[in-house]
Amino acid sequence: MNPTLQVTLGALAYIGLKILACAAILVIGWIIAKVIGTLVDKGLAKVRFNHLAQRTGMDRWTGRYTPSGLVGMVVYYALLLFTFQLAFSVFGPNPISNLIDDVIAWLPRLIVACVIIVVAVAIANAVFNVISNALSHFSYGRTVGRIAQVAIIALGAIAALNQAGIATTITTPVLVAILATISGILIVGVGGGLIGPMRSRWERALGRIEEESTRVSAHLKARAAEQETAAALTKARGDTMVQPKYPGETPQDVKPGTKVTAEEAADRLTKKATALRNDMKPGPEL
Fold first, then answer.
1. Domain ranges, residue 221
2. What residue ranges of the chain have pLDDT lower than 70?
3. Is residue 84 part of a domain?
4. Is residue 259 part of a domain?
5. Residue 211: Cβ-neighbour burial (10 angstroms; 0-12, 13-18, 19+)
6. At what angle do helices 49-56 and 67-88 cross, to 10 degrees?
7. Tens digits of residue pLDDT in 18-52
8. What torsion do the CA atoms of 171, 176, 180, 182 make, to the nearest 10 degrees?
9. What separation in angstroms does the CA of 115 have from each of 43, 61, 76, 128, 164?
C-alpha cells in the first residue's frame, strides 16, 4: 500500500475516533445534565423553595418558569457547558474550548451576582414592610417604604453587575452621574434660587408632620379609651356574678351596686372616645 495513502487513512481514522468520542461524551453528558436538572427542580419544589420565592417576591422575575424550574434549568445548562468543555477537549487546544473555559471560569461570578440580587430583594422587601407598618398611621408611610425598597434594589443590581463584570464601564459612571446630579441639585437649589420654594415646602412638610402626629396621638388615645371601656364592661359583667348556693344559705351578689357604677364609668369612657374621634381631622396633603 502506498505510504501516503496509509498515512491519510490513519489520520482519517484518528479523526473519526475523536469525533465518535466527542459525540459519545455529548450524548452521555446531555442525558446526565437533563436528569440532574430535573432532580434539582423536583427537590427544590419539595422543600418549598417556590413558596419561599413567592414570599420574597422573586417569583415575579422568573417569567414563565417556576423558581425551582428556573434553578433546575440553570443547573442543566451549566452541566451542558462542562459537557461541551470535556467533549471538545478531545481535539486538543482549540478556540471553542478556550471560549468554553472562559465562560466556565465566569460562572462563579455569575452565581455570586445572583445571590446578591436575591439578598438585595429580600432586604428591600423586609425594609418596605417594616417602614410601611411602622408609619402606617401616616399618609406617606408606604411612599417612604417604597422609595427605600427601590433604592436598595437599585444598589443591589449595580453591585451584582459589578460582581459579574457586566457593563462596569457603564454602571459605575451612571451611578456617579446620578449622585453628582443629586448633589448639584441640592447645592444649587438649596443654596441658590430654590431657597424660598424650599423654605415654604419644608414649612408645609413640617406642618403636615405635626398634624399627622397630633392625629395619630388622638387615634392612640381613642384606642386606649376604647380598651378601658371594654375592660370596664367586662368588669361589670364579672362583678354581677352570683355566688354558688351553699347549704343553708341563699344566693347573693358578690358586690351589690357595682353594676351601676361600672356602667356609668363605661358610658363616660365611651363619650370620651367619641369626642376624641370627632376631634381627629385629616391633614391637608402636601
1. 193-239+255-279
2. 1-2, 56-57, 61, 167-169, 186-199, 201-202, 235-270, 272-286
3. yes
4. yes
5. middle
6. 110
7. 889 889 999 999 999 999 999 999 998 888 888 87
8. 50
9. 19, 14, 18, 20, 11
Q: What length does the chain have?
A: 286
What is the Cβ-side half-sphere exposure of residue 133, based on CA atoms within 13 angstroms?
6
Please indicate, yes or no, if residue 175 is contained in any of the structural domains. no
Structure-block grid coordinates of residue 41? 427542580
For the entire predicted model, the pTM comes to 0.53
Cα 122 to chain centroid, rounded? 3
Rounded to whole angstroms, the Cα distance separating 164 from 177 reads 21
Domain boundary among 49, 70, 92: 92
Domain ends where: 75, 92, 109?
92
In a domain, 169, yes or no: no
What confidence tens digit (pLDDT) does each residue in 89-113 have?
888 888 888 888 888 888 888 888 8
- Residue-level pLDDT at 28: 94
